[in-house]
Each structure stands twice: as structure tokens, then as C-alpha cells.
Amino acid sequence: MNGTNVVAKWSSWAPRLLSVLRIFTAFIFLQAGGMKLFAFPMGMPPNGATAAIFSEFWIAGVLEVVGGAFLLLGLFTRPIAFLLSGEMAVAYFQYSAPMSFWPIVNNGVAPALCSFIWLYISAAGAGPWSLDARRRS
Questions:
Q1: Alpha-carbon span 37 to 49, nearest angstrom
Q2: Which tens digits make up the pLDDT trace of 50-70?
Q3: Which residues pair with 44 in a beta bridge?
Q4: Concatenated DSSP letters for 52-65?
Q5: At what angle do helices 109-124 and 77-91 cross, to 10 degrees?
Q6: CB distance 47 to 26 below 8 Å
Q7: Are the CB atoms for 137 and 74 separated by under 8 Å?
Q8: In whole angstroms, what separates CA 102 from the centre of its chain?
Q9: Cα 71 to Cα 62: distance, rounded to the nearest angstrom
Q10: Is this model's pTM higher than 0.90 or not?
Q11: Cβ pair 89, 98 in contact under 8 A
Q12: Are the CB atoms for 77 and 114 separated by under 8 Å?
């Protein structure tokens, strides 16, 4: 197999890897929401509690659990990913950016990356391994 065939073969996996990116990021998102709402797999730092009902963190937890579940399945992917991209942008600019310009310093790597991943997925779609793809076929 020559180099051109390897590149073509690897490139053909792009749609499936889009699905893998969506599924993996949604799985991480579900954990963040589970922490806020159910103290699972751990509670919120520093004391392991859950978010107070109707607080900003509780609303974020609801978005992360419900939106994360939809995105894990790849259902209504584009609008939900766009909404969650905005949630992560708000989280970054409200909590991380005021501490420092640098995401590695301000503990904002996760919300910044999630914001851009969800923004990309809102444009690219769910990929072939999704309920959205099954609904279209």
C-alpha cells in the first residue's frame, strides 16, 4: 500500500471519527452534569455537594445531563451542540477568563475546548453513528 492509499483510507474515516468525537465529548459532559446534579461520579468541589436547585450551576448541570444524553445518542445534534457551545463560552468567560488570559492558568481548558468542539459539531452534524443519521435514512 503506497502513501496515497494510506491517506485516502485514513481520510475515509473522518465521518466516523466525527461520531467518536461527539460521543466521547458527550460522555465527559454527562459526567460534569452528573457531578452537579447527583454527586456522581463525584460531588462538586470543594466539599462534594450537589448544586442548589435552580442555581446557575444546577441549570448548567441540567443542560449537561440532558444535552449530553442527546448528543451521546446523536439526536437533534446541531441545535443542542450550538446551545451547549454557548453554555461553555459563558462558563469560560464568566469563571475562567477573569482569572487570567491563559486557559492553562485560569483552569479554562475544558470549557474552552468543549465550546469549540460543540460549535464544530453544530456545523458538521453528528456523523454516521447517530440517531440523526438513522432518522435521515
A1: 9
A2: 999 999 999 999 999 999 999
A3: 49
A4: PTTSHHHHHHHHHH
A5: 160
A6: no
A7: no
A8: 21
A9: 14
A10: yes
A11: no
A12: no
